[in-house]
What we know:
The chain is mainly α. It has helices at residues 9-33, 40-71. The protein has one domain (9-71). The longest helix has 32 residues, at 40-71. 1% of the residues are buried.
Amino acid sequence: xxxxxxxxxxxxxxxxxxxxxxxxxxxxxxxxLDGKEISEEAKYEIFHDFNVELARIDLLKSHxxxxxxxxx
Length: 72
């Protein structure tokens, strides 16, 4: 099984954005999961970033859905 490349430039941009945002989120989340003391500001940032990431995933799903309707 192989992963196909993104079928459109918009979907590729969506995926690139998700990966970039995940790298930032992962650092804060790792600290939290490792039991490190984090500030209330950092906790808010994690919560906010997760909400943004979920919204971006929904956008990606929408773009894939639109592409699929046009091409299948």
